Amino acid sequence: MAWILRLDETKLSEALHGLAEVGVVHEAEPGVWVVTHFAERQDADTPAERVANHRKDVTKRYKNRNERVTKRYVEEEIEEDKEKEEEKEVEVDAEAKSGGDQKPDDDYFSPTMKPLIQAFSAATGIHAPIGGGGQTRRWHDAMLELMRMRASPEEIDATCREMLAQGLKIAGPWSILNGVNVFRSRQRAPKNGKKQDVDEIIREYISENPKV
User: Fold this and answer.
1) 29 - beta bridge partners?
2) What are phi and psi of 152, to 5 degrees?
3) 3-state DSSP call for residue 167?
4) pTM of the predicted model over 0.90
5) What are the boundaries of the region Disordered (predicted)?
6) Which mean pLDDT values do the consecutive 10-residue runs of the chain (212 residues) have?
7) Which pLDDT belongs to residue 178?
8) DSSP labels for 3-69?
9) Which distant-in-sequence residues (6+ apart) come within 8 Å of 1 by Cβ?
10) Widest CA span of the chain, in angstroms?
């Protein structure tokens, strides 16, 4: 065996004794080494052993799969958070560069929207974001709704100034959608000489616009 393995007898003996210590081989008689429990190891597994081994494999596969899925979800959440932060930074930088004199972004707002945006900004001091992102989409959707309502720049200006005078918060053009309807309904109301109470105006607005 030493000649076949190209080892000297001393090294071969050390290797065999090392294997014997872990139960792989044993010396049946001086100089004769055999594999321990060779026949048992070569026999087919019993049904119970096969089932047990199968369950171990399945458990291991599911564990590895769950670890990969969890890691992927965590990475996706981190990526989403990074995108939101970058989006917010872009909006803040754009507003800072504009110096408060920000014009509607031609890439996101149509020419028809611009008079409405200008009226809103003039009355509130809130300017449309530039560079895209979630806020730009929200502005765009609100402007589309105002156009669908056929709101005029004059109505937007009057609504904004009235709401601000009443202490109502305006976060963006979406905040005045119901306010425009309230303004219109009051304009269409018959002139009976009775001045509408400010508290009544506020209650009317809040009832029609619960989520500003």
Assistant:
1) 32
2) -95, 160
3) coil
4) no
5) 76-107
6) 64 83 84 79 74 79 65 69 62 48 64 92 90 83 93 94 92 93 83 56 62 53
7) 92
8) HHHT--HHHHHHHHHHHHHTTSEEEEETTEEEETTHHHHHSPPPHHHHHHHHHHHHHHHHHHHHHHH
9) 12
10) 124
81, two tokens: 């958070």
What confidence score (pLDDT) does residue 1 get? 54
And the tokens for 30? 């001086």
Distance CA 212, CA 34 (A): 85
Long-range contacts, stretch 151-158, CB < 8 angstroms, 24+ apart = 151/116, 151/180, 153/115, 153/116, 153/118, 153/119, 154/119, 155/180, 155/183, 155/184, 156/116, 156/119, 156/120, 156/123, 156/180, 157/119, 157/120, 157/122, 157/123, 158/183
DSSP 69-131: HHHHHHHHHHHHHHHHHHHHHHHHHHHHHHTT-PPPPTTTS-TTTHHHHHHHHHHH------S
pLDDT value of residue 125: 93
Q: Which of 70, 194, 90, 188 is nearest to 132 (CA)?
A: 90
pLDDT value for 98:
46
> Tokens 């110096």 — which residue?
99
- Dihedrals phi, psi of 189, to nearest 5 degrees: -65, 145
